[in-house]
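The following block was generated as part of the benchmark described in Methods. Ligand: farnesyl diphosphate.
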Amino acid sequence: MNRPPKPHRSGARPPKFSPEKIPGHIAVVMDGNGRWAQERGLPRTAGHEAGEAALFDLVEGAIEIGVQELSAYAFSTENWRRSPDEVKFLMGFNRDVIRRRRDEMNELGVKVRWVGRPKRLWKSVIKELEIAEELTQTNQVLTLNMCVNYGGRAEIVDAATALAHAVQLGEVSPAEVNEKLFQSYLDEPTMRDVDLFLRSSGEMRTSNFLPWQSVYAEFVFMDVLWPDVDRRVLWRAVEEYGRRDRRFGKA
Ligand code: FPP
């Protein structure tokens, strides 16, 4: 039996949304940790630490309104370019967060999935992700895609490579290749298209996050640094999403 999410500490309750105005899949770029820390005279790593609570508050707030899938950009294939100290911190931090949050995610009925490349990723991080995936595999309340060592172009190139091999082996003929078949070679073929793409900190970039899945996403850029984000910010973004006119190419 899953436990319901705990209400936000302010006592705030979600606005009433009509079901068709709830995004099925929300992608979040958790940006602004470094600036949050800098404003307080703290090391950048303190900003990342403060960002943990924001992510897990969003998970509970997403469950409260019936979101099915949430994807969090926890470490990108480009983040290896950061200082060795920050990379080391982010690796250890991801490992520890996954370990300390997995039981809570399981109690809430959250299915945790790792999306990303194994190459270069610390073995200990992969191990924690795999344990969390196994523990939560049958959960159905919400799917949380932890995108760790994820890059959108890398995902597409890996899919193209696997497909090229399949063609070379005669398993697939080039004439059969269409969007549906191509998608089946992506990291998570069952991932829904992104409905709402969120980024904190006021920056307006997608930074290589879920390009294939976001072609018809609505973008909302939140003017709040990531550690200051909570579920109330998410609900405001969903209200904004509800006001958008989604046409998917139709007139
Ligand atoms: C961006 O802030 C954030 C990242 C590089 C990804 C890491 C995200 C977290 C650690 C948040 C919580 C994650 C988990 C797994 C709970 P930044 O360093 O780019 O900030 P800046 O743009 O202000 O420098």
